[in-house]
Amino acid sequence: MASAQETATAGPDSSRVNLPLAAAAAAAAAAQRIISFLKQNAHPCVADKIPVVPENVTDQDMFEQCCDLARDNGFLLWEDSKKMRLIVRVEFHQEMREFLRRQR
After folding, report:
1. How confident is the model over 81-94, as pLDDT tens digits?
2. pTM of the model
3. Residue 59, CA distances (Å) to 12, 45, 76, 103 in order
4. Does residue 17 carry a pLDDT above 70?
5. Are 73 and 61 in contact (CB under 8 A)?
6. DSSP state, 89?
7. Residue ranges of the Transcription factor Tfb2 C-terminal domain (predicted)?
8. Distance separating alpha carbons of residues 52 and 21, to the nearest angstrom
9. Rounded Cα–Cα distance for residues 100 and 69 (Å)
10. Of 21, 24, 27, 57, which is the most buried if we count CB atoms within 10 A?
């Protein structure tokens, strides 16, 4: 049985599926559901404000998703959680950009 760090073969054309990437996508979906829940169930005094969920909450969530994606795929070189900064390998930059675009 393949571990979470191994790459599995899937489909008749033997295309490669990266298991950590799937886990990161699932985590991103879960985070989006939490933020959606917070927006839908906000107290009436807060519900009139824009944004309902403070940007620092959504920014922190996005940062953690980016770190998880890079870490799970072996491209994270350095991170600073307090300042929300990370360094990834150059060959991962395009994938990280695409990930961020999909999140917005």
Report:
1. 889 899 999 999 99
2. 0.58
3. 39, 22, 18, 11
4. no
5. no
6. -
7. 55-101
8. 30
9. 11
10. 24
Residues 66 and 86 sit within 8 Å (Cβ to Cβ): yes
Angle of helix 55-72 versus helix 93-103 axis, rounded to 10:
140
Vertex 90, ends 87 and 91: CA angle to 5°?
130
Cα–Cα distance for residue pair 28/47, rounded to 1 Å: 24
Angle of the 19-40 helix axis to the 55-72 helix axis, nearest 10: 170
pLDDT tens, residue by residue, 63-72: 888 999 999 9
Distance CA 56, CA 101 (A): 18
What is d(CA 97, CA 15) in angstroms, rounded to the nearest whole number? 23
Single-letter residue type at 16: R
Distance CA 22, CA 59 (A): 21
For residue 12, report the phi and psi dihedrals to the nearest 5 degrees.
-70, -25
Q: What is the DSSP letter of 24?
A: H
Coil, helix or strand for 50? coil
Q: Dig out the tokens for 82 from the structure.
A: 């307090």
